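> run fold Flagellar P-ring protein
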Amino acid sequence: MCNRLIALIVICLYCMHVNCPAVCAKSSVRIKDIAQIEGVRSNHLFGYGLVFGLDGTGDSGSSDFTVQSIASMLRRMGITIPASSITVDNVAAVMVTAELPAFAKEGTKIDVIVSSIGDCESLFGGTLLMTPLQGVDGNIYAVAQGPVSLGGFAFGAGGASAVKNVPTTATIPNGAMVEKEVPSTMVRHQTLRISLREPDFTTMKRMTDAINNTFMDTATSIDAATVSVAIPREYIMEEKVVDFIAQVETIELETDSPAKIIINERTGTIVAGSNVRITTVAVSHGNLNVVIKNNPVISQPNPFAEGDTVVTTDDELEVKEENNPLVVVEDGVTIGEVTRALNALGATPRDLIAIFQAMKRAGAINAELIIM
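> ok
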């Protein structure tokens, strides 16, 4: 049996190694997929507001800020009423958040997220009152208002309840209107700066060479994340900077990244990059299973005998250990090939996690092992 398992895993590794060479051809990607132009970015907005029209699922009287907000709102409308006489079970205090995209103009509509900050039970059926949304600088850039939309519900009656998703968070599609534009500065001194989303010296060198091959001597690498691109004079003179940026974004190149293995022990998830390589190592992994069974044994007296029926237990102990062979993994085999071969033998994700951790500790995996 052991010899058959060894032969199976060796055949699997050999076939996979032949069919999938160690150096696989990488596909090209566009610059716009891996980098962004400095100065072109979104901005976070937030605001405090009230959601009205709830069916008794709003904040309770213990939420003082909700009562004070209603009293202040009515006072601005010319209505003075004691805060103690305000009932808030159909009103909920919420925080409204949104993301203002780059180049958003006045009148552009954006989505908002509404989240309860009190003891509201559900925002179902509510309407957000006009809420100013401000940026980190304190200036108001948008105003939100409209009926909220939930992705769940919460109902209850007679001690029974049913809840789906989170009913205290809702969205308002196109619920905010931009009132003030955020200036974006892309070009400084006739130069663009492009930043990689994942800094890497090799990828930066390839991106710089690809730009220079299309626009002669315009790109200069600053560091592992940023390249400076001088806009050709003809594009400046003809006011075609947007055309130049569009051409730069579509330039293709091959990316590179360090070898990593990401392991999440809580979920049994393993993600490994294609650059991970294995040096020669011997692997054996076995489990010890202990099974204890309690079998009831009934002792019953003979007919007409003065005795009682007695129930006892007969304990049975079974110890089972898997007899897994010691497998030699050859030098140059990829992590994908090892995983597929071990899976073919019935290894579970948690078995693979233990194996990879041991291989890394033995120095057989040439990659960074990240455990979440």
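The chain has three domains: 2-24+260-371, 30-39+185-253, 43-178.
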